[in-house]
Amino acid sequence: MKLHIINPNTSRRMTEMIRSSAEQAAAFGTEIVCEGLRRGPEYADCAYDGVIVSHELVQMVQADMRMAAGYDAYVVASFADPALDALRELTDKPVVGIAESALHFASFLGYKFAVINTLPRLERTFEDEVRRAGASDRLAVVKLPPYRVSSFLESTEDAKAMLVKTAREAIEQDGAEVIILAGGMLAGYAGFLSAAIRAPVLDGVKCAVKMAEALAALGLTTSKIKTYAWPDAKKAYIK
């Protein structure tokens, strides 16, 4: 089995963190190909960035199709789950996002969950992802204490302490039973945090890898009946 995991930004360090997390989760024999974007923002934290990375994601998957790259499934490693619908139209291979995967996994582990990240302007985006997954009634809280992305890429002790503090608040004050770490920059932190707070903590990358493996192993493909039908060929008119 061969999975293409795409980090929708240009941070090489974040791509390596995502790759490491994916390889830890992958079953024996699963080949992980993990890439970042060739062009785009260092990390995406707004709608403007989302438009840019969505275009690049489409370009990458189209290139795979032209080269017959032979991937069995795709993982988009951003908690905003950018371009999932467009990518599902482009290929019949399973395309999964780390947000939707983590949210579905959380439903098996507890009733209320918290989403944790450190980019405050993404609050609406994360709430939209929860709503899209049909899990709004099980969301305890979205906690986004401002903190430097670079601290998580460098795995500083201060960053780890902030995660522990935030997760404990989500459990003790907001009623969360499961913690979801939102975003590629938090890939690899779930094990440490779960041990520290003694509660289930989900790494979206690992959840998405297992989801993609399961769909591919079952021989399932994206339905082309209506919603994700192949895009129609259209003429372009320039005025």
List the helices and strands and how they pair.
Blueprint: E1 2-7, H1 12-25, E2 31-36, H2 47-67, E3 73-76, H3 84-90, E4 95-97, H4 98-109, E5 113-116, H5 123-132, E6 139-143, H6 149-153, H7 157-172, E7 178-181, H8 190-197, E8 201-203, H9 204-217
Parallel strand pairs: 1-2, 1-3, 3-4, 5-6, 5-7, 7-8
Helix pairs in contact: 1-9, 4-9
Q: How do the strands of the widest beta sheet line up side by side? A: 2-1-3-4
Helix content: 40-55%
Largest sheet: 4 strands, parallel
Percent range for β-strand residues:
5-15%
Mean pLDDT: 94
The CATH first-level class of the largest domain comes to: Alpha Beta
Shape call: globular
Total beta strands? 8
- Supply the number of structural domains: 2
Radius of gyration equals: 18 Å
Please give a structural write-up.
- The chain is of the alpha/beta class.
- The protein folds into two domains: 107 residues, Rossmann fold (3-Layer(aba) Sandwich), CATH 3.40.50.12500; 106 residues, Rossmann fold (3-Layer(aba) Sandwich), CATH 3.40.50.12500.
- Helices cover 45% and strands 15% of the residues.
- The protein is built from nine helices and eight strands.
- The strands form two sheets. The protein has a four-stranded parallel sheet, with helices on both faces. Strands 6-5-7-8 form a four-stranded parallel sheet, with helices on both faces.
- Helix 3 links the parallel strand 3 and strand 4.
- Helix 1 crosses helix 9 and helix 4 crosses helix 9.
- The longest helix is centred in the N-terminal third of the chain and has 21 residues.
- The protein is globular.
- The mean pLDDT is 94.
